[in-house]
Predict the structure.
Amino acid sequence: MNHESVERRKQHAAAAREAAMERAGRQQESAAIRRAQDHAAWRARRDASLERQHAGVSRALRDRDVSLLDLIDRLLDGGVVIHGDITLAVADVDLLYVGLRAMIASVETIERELGVSLSARGPSLKASAL
Amino acid sequence: MLYVYAITDSPSAPRRSGLQGASVRVVGERGPFALMSEHRDLPPQPSEEDLWTHEAVVEDLMESSTVLPMRFGTRVADEAGLLAVLDERRDEFETAIERVRGAVELGVRAQIRTVEHAVTVAAGAGPGSAYLLERAARRRLADDTAARIHQPLARLARRSAARTNGLEPGVFKGAYLVDRDRVEAFRTRVSELTGEIDGASIVCTGPWPPYSFSSGERQ
Protein backbone atom coordinates (compact mmCIF):
# COMPACT_ATOMS: atom_id res chain seq x y z
CA MET A 1 0.00 0.00 0.00
CA ASN A 2 1.27 3.40 -0.92
CA HIS A 3 1.93 5.31 2.27
CA GLU A 4 1.63 8.62 0.54
CA SER A 5 -1.80 7.95 -0.86
CA VAL A 6 -3.03 6.86 2.61
CA GLU A 7 -1.76 10.13 4.00
CA ARG A 8 -3.51 12.07 1.21
CA ARG A 9 -6.73 10.21 1.79
CA LYS A 10 -6.55 11.08 5.48
CA GLN A 11 -6.04 14.73 4.59
CA HIS A 12 -9.00 14.60 2.20
CA ALA A 13 -11.13 13.01 4.86
CA ALA A 14 -10.11 15.65 7.38
CA ALA A 15 -10.90 18.43 4.92
CA ALA A 16 -14.24 16.85 4.13
CA ARG A 17 -15.04 16.54 7.86
CA GLU A 18 -14.14 20.15 8.40
CA ALA A 19 -16.29 21.25 5.48
CA ALA A 20 -19.15 19.12 6.75
CA MET A 21 -18.83 20.61 10.21
CA GLU A 22 -18.78 24.07 8.78
CA ARG A 23 -21.85 23.31 6.68
CA ALA A 24 -23.61 21.86 9.70
CA GLY A 25 -22.65 24.95 11.68
CA ARG A 26 -24.03 27.21 9.01
CA GLN A 27 -27.18 25.12 8.83
CA GLN A 28 -27.59 25.26 12.58
CA GLU A 29 -27.09 28.98 12.50
CA SER A 30 -29.60 29.54 9.74
CA ALA A 31 -32.02 27.15 11.42
CA ALA A 32 -31.69 29.19 14.59
CA ILE A 33 -32.33 32.38 12.65
CA ARG A 34 -35.33 30.78 10.97
CA ARG A 35 -36.63 29.60 14.32
CA ALA A 36 -36.28 33.07 15.75
CA GLN A 37 -38.07 34.53 12.75
CA ASP A 38 -40.78 31.88 12.98
CA HIS A 39 -41.16 32.55 16.65
CA ALA A 40 -41.47 36.28 16.09
CA ALA A 41 -44.00 35.72 13.33
CA TRP A 42 -45.89 33.25 15.49
CA ARG A 43 -45.99 35.70 18.37
CA ALA A 44 -47.24 38.45 16.09
CA ARG A 45 -49.90 36.11 14.73
CA ARG A 46 -50.86 35.02 18.23
CA ASP A 47 -51.12 38.60 19.46
CA ALA A 48 -53.20 39.57 16.46
CA SER A 49 -55.37 36.52 16.95
CA LEU A 50 -55.84 37.22 20.66
CA GLU A 51 -56.77 40.76 19.86
CA ARG A 52 -59.26 39.56 17.28
CA GLN A 53 -60.61 37.06 19.76
CA HIS A 54 -61.11 39.69 22.43
CA ALA A 55 -62.81 42.00 19.98
CA GLY A 56 -64.81 39.03 18.69
CA VAL A 57 -65.83 37.91 22.13
CA SER A 58 -67.15 41.26 23.23
CA ARG A 59 -68.88 41.82 19.92
CA ALA A 60 -70.35 38.32 19.90
CA LEU A 61 -71.58 38.73 23.45
CA ARG A 62 -73.31 41.96 22.63
CA ASP A 63 -74.82 40.57 19.47
CA ARG A 64 -75.93 37.50 21.33
CA ASP A 65 -77.50 39.45 24.16
CA VAL A 66 -79.40 41.75 21.88
CA SER A 67 -80.37 38.71 19.84
CA LEU A 68 -81.53 37.05 23.03
CA LEU A 69 -84.06 39.82 23.58
CA ASP A 70 -85.32 39.35 20.07
CA LEU A 71 -85.29 35.59 20.52
CA ILE A 72 -87.45 35.80 23.64
CA ASP A 73 -89.81 38.19 21.89
CA ARG A 74 -90.20 35.87 18.96
CA LEU A 75 -90.22 32.45 20.60
CA LEU A 76 -92.69 33.41 23.31
CA ASP A 77 -94.88 35.77 21.35
CA GLY A 78 -94.57 34.71 17.72
CA GLY A 79 -94.72 31.51 15.77
CA VAL A 80 -97.47 29.05 15.09
CA VAL A 81 -99.73 28.25 18.03
CA ILE A 82 -101.55 24.97 18.31
CA HIS A 83 -104.55 25.91 20.39
CA GLY A 84 -105.23 23.87 23.46
CA ASP A 85 -102.01 21.96 23.19
CA ILE A 86 -99.62 24.60 24.34
CA THR A 87 -98.34 23.62 27.77
CA LEU A 88 -97.11 27.02 28.79
CA ALA A 89 -100.59 28.11 29.75
CA VAL A 90 -101.20 31.49 31.32
CA ALA A 91 -100.59 30.13 34.82
CA ASP A 92 -97.20 28.81 33.76
CA VAL A 93 -96.11 32.02 32.13
CA ASP A 94 -95.14 33.61 35.44
CA LEU A 95 -93.09 30.55 36.26
CA LEU A 96 -91.33 30.78 32.95
CA TYR A 97 -90.49 34.42 33.48
CA VAL A 98 -89.17 33.76 36.96
CA GLY A 99 -86.81 31.27 35.37
CA LEU A 100 -85.74 33.80 32.81
CA ARG A 101 -85.30 36.60 35.30
CA ALA A 102 -81.68 35.93 36.23
CA MET A 103 -80.69 35.73 32.63
CA ILE A 104 -82.50 38.91 31.75
CA ALA A 105 -80.89 40.80 34.63
CA SER A 106 -77.53 40.22 33.01
CA VAL A 107 -78.86 41.68 29.81
CA GLU A 108 -80.02 44.89 31.42
CA THR A 109 -76.63 46.50 31.11
CA ILE A 110 -76.59 45.83 27.41
CA GLU A 111 -80.12 47.10 27.23
CA ARG A 112 -79.05 50.41 28.71
CA GLU A 113 -75.98 50.60 26.51
CA LEU A 114 -77.70 49.85 23.26
CA GLY A 115 -81.01 51.42 24.10
CA VAL A 116 -83.10 48.37 23.43
CA SER A 117 -86.01 47.40 25.59
CA LEU A 118 -87.34 44.13 26.88
CA SER A 119 -90.84 45.39 27.18
CA ALA A 120 -93.32 43.74 24.92
CA ARG A 121 -97.03 44.13 24.52
CA GLY A 122 -99.57 41.90 26.13
CA PRO A 123 -98.71 39.55 28.96
CA SER A 124 -95.10 39.47 27.90
CA LEU A 125 -92.05 40.89 29.56
CA LYS A 126 -92.59 44.08 31.46
CA ALA A 127 -90.25 45.86 33.77
CA SER A 128 -92.85 45.80 36.52
CA ALA A 129 -93.21 42.03 36.29
CA LEU A 130 -89.54 41.50 36.86
CA MET B 1 -95.12 13.64 24.57
CA LEU B 2 -93.94 15.36 21.42
CA TYR B 3 -92.22 18.73 21.37
CA VAL B 4 -92.89 20.54 18.09
CA TYR B 5 -90.34 22.92 16.51
CA ALA B 6 -91.78 23.87 13.17
CA ILE B 7 -94.12 23.20 10.31
CA THR B 8 -92.26 22.75 7.04
CA ASP B 9 -92.72 22.01 3.36
CA SER B 10 -89.90 19.45 3.27
CA PRO B 11 -89.72 15.94 4.73
CA SER B 12 -85.98 16.23 5.42
CA ALA B 13 -84.96 16.39 9.06
CA PRO B 14 -82.25 18.71 10.38
CA ARG B 15 -78.87 17.21 11.22
CA ARG B 16 -78.70 18.57 14.72
CA SER B 17 -80.39 17.20 17.80
CA GLY B 18 -83.24 18.83 19.63
CA LEU B 19 -84.11 19.63 23.24
CA GLN B 20 -82.12 17.53 25.73
CA GLY B 21 -80.19 15.99 22.86
CA ALA B 22 -83.26 14.14 21.57
CA SER B 23 -83.23 13.30 17.89
CA VAL B 24 -85.49 15.38 15.69
CA ARG B 25 -87.94 13.63 13.37
CA VAL B 26 -90.33 14.72 10.69
CA VAL B 27 -93.94 13.55 10.68
CA GLY B 28 -96.61 14.02 8.04
CA GLU B 29 -97.89 12.01 5.15
CA ARG B 30 -97.90 14.41 2.24
CA GLY B 31 -96.99 17.78 3.63
CA PRO B 32 -96.96 20.15 5.28
CA PHE B 33 -94.77 18.26 7.69
CA ALA B 34 -94.08 18.81 11.38
CA LEU B 35 -90.68 18.71 12.99
CA MET B 36 -90.66 17.17 16.47
CA SER B 37 -88.71 15.27 19.08
CA GLU B 38 -90.05 12.73 21.53
CA HIS B 39 -89.78 13.22 25.29
CA ARG B 40 -90.93 11.41 28.37
CA ASP B 41 -91.06 14.71 30.19
CA LEU B 42 -89.59 18.14 29.76
CA PRO B 43 -88.64 20.39 32.67
CA PRO B 44 -91.36 22.92 33.48
CA GLN B 45 -88.85 25.76 33.40
CA PRO B 46 -87.21 26.20 30.05
CA SER B 47 -83.67 27.52 30.14
CA GLU B 48 -81.91 29.93 27.87
CA GLU B 49 -80.22 26.91 26.33
CA ASP B 50 -83.60 25.41 25.45
CA LEU B 51 -84.60 28.61 23.70
CA TRP B 52 -81.43 28.56 21.63
CA THR B 53 -81.82 24.85 20.86
CA HIS B 54 -85.34 25.40 19.57
CA GLU B 55 -84.03 28.27 17.49
CA ALA B 56 -81.03 26.30 16.19
CA VAL B 57 -83.20 23.39 15.06
CA VAL B 58 -85.48 25.74 13.15
CA GLU B 59 -82.57 27.71 11.67
CA ASP B 60 -80.90 24.50 10.53
CA LEU B 61 -84.02 23.46 8.69
CA MET B 62 -84.51 26.95 7.30
CA GLU B 63 -81.35 26.60 5.21
CA SER B 64 -82.84 23.93 3.00
CA SER B 65 -86.60 24.41 3.21
CA THR B 66 -89.40 26.81 4.04
CA VAL B 67 -90.40 26.77 7.69
CA LEU B 68 -93.11 28.08 9.96
CA PRO B 69 -91.56 28.13 13.42
CA MET B 70 -93.77 27.07 16.33
CA ARG B 71 -94.14 29.21 19.40
CA PHE B 72 -91.75 27.97 22.08
CA GLY B 73 -93.26 25.33 24.36
CA THR B 74 -95.59 23.70 21.85
CA ARG B 75 -96.28 20.09 22.84
CA VAL B 76 -98.77 17.53 21.68
CA ALA B 77 -99.65 14.24 23.31
CA ASP B 78 -98.76 11.88 20.48
CA GLU B 79 -98.15 11.49 16.77
CA ALA B 80 -101.83 10.93 16.00
CA GLY B 81 -102.63 14.27 17.62
CA LEU B 82 -99.95 16.01 15.60
CA LEU B 83 -101.12 14.44 12.34
CA ALA B 84 -104.64 15.58 13.14
CA VAL B 85 -103.45 19.17 13.58
CA LEU B 86 -101.56 19.01 10.28
CA ASP B 87 -104.64 17.70 8.57
CA GLU B 88 -107.11 20.15 10.07
CA ARG B 89 -104.98 23.20 9.38
CA ARG B 90 -103.40 22.14 6.10
CA ASP B 91 -104.82 25.10 4.13
CA GLU B 92 -103.69 27.62 6.69
CA PHE B 93 -100.18 26.15 6.87
CA GLU B 94 -99.85 25.91 3.09
CA THR B 95 -100.90 29.53 2.68
CA ALA B 96 -98.45 30.65 5.35
CA ILE B 97 -95.61 28.62 3.79
CA GLU B 98 -96.20 30.35 0.45
CA ARG B 99 -96.32 33.70 2.21
CA VAL B 100 -92.84 33.29 3.69
CA ARG B 101 -91.16 31.23 0.97
CA GLY B 102 -87.80 32.69 -0.03
CA ALA B 103 -87.84 35.27 2.74
CA VAL B 104 -86.40 35.69 6.22
CA GLU B 105 -87.42 37.82 9.14
CA LEU B 106 -85.30 40.74 10.28
CA GLY B 107 -85.85 42.50 13.55
CA VAL B 108 -85.29 46.18 14.20
CA ARG B 109 -85.25 47.83 17.60
CA ALA B 110 -84.87 51.51 18.12
CA GLN B 111 -84.66 53.70 21.15
CA ILE B 112 -85.81 57.17 20.34
CA ARG B 113 -84.66 59.89 22.68
CA THR B 114 -86.97 62.84 22.77
CA VAL B 115 -85.66 64.56 25.90
CA GLU B 116 -82.84 66.16 23.96
CA HIS B 117 -85.28 67.92 21.68
CA ALA B 118 -86.78 71.21 22.73
CA VAL B 119 -90.53 71.01 22.69
CA THR B 120 -92.53 74.20 22.59
CA VAL B 121 -95.73 74.41 24.53
CA ALA B 122 -98.37 77.06 23.95
CA ALA B 123 -97.80 80.09 26.12
CA GLY B 124 -100.30 80.79 28.84
CA ALA B 125 -100.90 77.17 29.78
CA GLY B 126 -100.94 76.43 33.48
CA PRO B 127 -98.25 74.16 34.92
CA GLY B 128 -100.50 71.08 34.77
CA SER B 129 -101.57 71.59 31.16
CA ALA B 130 -98.05 72.59 30.19
CA TYR B 131 -96.80 69.26 31.55
CA LEU B 132 -99.42 67.26 29.70
CA LEU B 133 -98.96 69.24 26.49
CA GLU B 134 -95.25 68.67 26.63
CA ARG B 135 -95.76 64.95 27.19
CA ALA B 136 -98.12 64.77 24.24
CA ALA B 137 -95.66 66.68 22.07
CA ARG B 138 -92.84 64.32 22.98
CA ARG B 139 -95.09 61.37 22.28
CA ARG B 140 -95.88 62.74 18.82
CA LEU B 141 -92.19 63.35 18.21
CA ALA B 142 -91.43 59.73 19.13
CA ASP B 143 -94.20 58.44 16.89
CA ASP B 144 -93.01 60.59 13.98
CA THR B 145 -89.46 59.32 14.41
CA ALA B 146 -90.69 55.73 14.58
CA ALA B 147 -92.53 56.28 11.32
CA ARG B 148 -89.38 57.69 9.74
CA ILE B 149 -87.60 54.48 10.69
CA HIS B 150 -90.40 52.11 9.80
CA GLN B 151 -91.62 53.42 6.46
CA PRO B 152 -88.41 53.19 4.42
CA LEU B 153 -87.71 49.73 5.86
CA ALA B 154 -91.23 48.50 5.19
CA ARG B 155 -90.76 49.46 1.54
CA LEU B 156 -87.88 46.98 1.34
CA ALA B 157 -89.91 44.20 2.92
CA ARG B 158 -92.56 41.81 1.68
CA ARG B 159 -94.51 42.33 4.88
CA SER B 160 -93.90 44.19 8.06
CA ALA B 161 -95.18 44.51 11.58
CA ALA B 162 -94.32 47.57 13.65
CA ARG B 163 -95.14 48.26 17.21
CA THR B 164 -94.41 50.96 19.68
CA ASN B 165 -94.84 50.39 23.33
CA GLY B 166 -97.67 52.30 24.94
CA LEU B 167 -96.07 52.07 28.38
CA GLU B 168 -92.74 53.20 27.17
CA PRO B 169 -92.86 55.80 24.41
CA GLY B 170 -89.68 55.99 22.43
CA VAL B 171 -89.26 52.27 22.08
CA PHE B 172 -89.84 51.04 18.58
CA LYS B 173 -89.83 47.43 17.46
CA GLY B 174 -90.33 46.26 13.95
CA ALA B 175 -90.35 42.87 12.26
CA TYR B 176 -89.79 42.66 8.52
CA LEU B 177 -90.28 39.78 6.13
CA VAL B 178 -87.46 40.35 3.65
CA ASP B 179 -86.59 38.45 0.48
CA ARG B 180 -83.32 36.60 1.00
CA ASP B 181 -81.59 38.54 -1.76
CA ARG B 182 -82.58 41.88 -0.23
CA VAL B 183 -81.22 41.23 3.26
CA GLU B 184 -77.99 43.13 2.57
CA ALA B 185 -79.85 46.09 1.08
CA PHE B 186 -82.07 46.12 4.16
CA ARG B 187 -79.11 46.12 6.55
CA THR B 188 -77.49 48.92 4.57
CA ARG B 189 -80.67 50.97 4.81
CA VAL B 190 -80.74 50.43 8.59
CA SER B 191 -77.24 51.80 8.99
CA GLU B 192 -78.08 54.75 6.76
CA LEU B 193 -81.09 55.51 8.93
CA THR B 194 -78.90 55.47 12.03
CA GLY B 195 -76.99 58.37 10.51
CA GLU B 196 -80.02 60.19 9.16
CA ILE B 197 -82.17 60.20 12.28
CA ASP B 198 -80.98 62.23 15.22
CA GLY B 199 -81.39 60.80 18.67
CA ALA B 200 -82.26 57.27 17.69
CA SER B 201 -80.13 54.18 18.19
CA ILE B 202 -81.20 51.43 15.86
CA VAL B 203 -80.26 47.75 16.09
CA CYS B 204 -80.98 45.17 13.42
CA THR B 205 -81.04 41.46 14.27
CA GLY B 206 -81.55 38.33 12.23
CA PRO B 207 -82.07 36.68 9.86
CA TRP B 208 -84.70 34.90 11.91
CA PRO B 209 -87.18 32.24 10.93
CA PRO B 210 -90.44 34.06 10.18
CA TYR B 211 -91.83 34.01 13.74
CA SER B 212 -93.83 37.17 13.23
CA PHE B 213 -95.33 36.10 9.90
CA SER B 214 -96.23 32.46 10.46
CA SER B 215 -99.61 32.80 12.00
CA GLY B 216 -102.61 33.85 9.95
CA GLU B 217 -104.34 35.54 12.84
CA ARG B 218 -101.49 37.98 13.39
CA GLN B 219 -101.66 39.49 9.94
About this structure: The longest helix of chain A spans residues 3-77.
